[in-house]
Amino acid sequence: MAESAIVSGVGQQAAYAMVVRAEALRPRLQDAAVRAEVEQAMAAPLKDVNAQLVGHETLNMLVVAQEPWSIENGCLTPTMKIELSRIEGSVADREDAWYAAPGPVVWA
Hints:
Strand content: 15-25%
Oligomer: single chain
Strand order of the largest sheet: 1-2-3-4
Number of domains: 1
């Protein structure tokens, strides 16, 4: 279901994971039923992962990225490595709202 993922949350009360949905799924995400299914499918693994981590290491939420990360948008290097600082900088102004949102899955 996920194509790429990062863990972030520097300066926040807890870490979060951000994921880019698989290419085949992206066109269907406009459908509310599909989005609900994706949220449910993502919440279960988050709970399982957090059960294996120490309290301060747990992930507060999974954030679904708005668009795929690419070389063109600066989120990937020419060698396809994730530009973490670029991604973090592009979402920094939205993080507080994510932490205030209910539920374990947030749509960026």
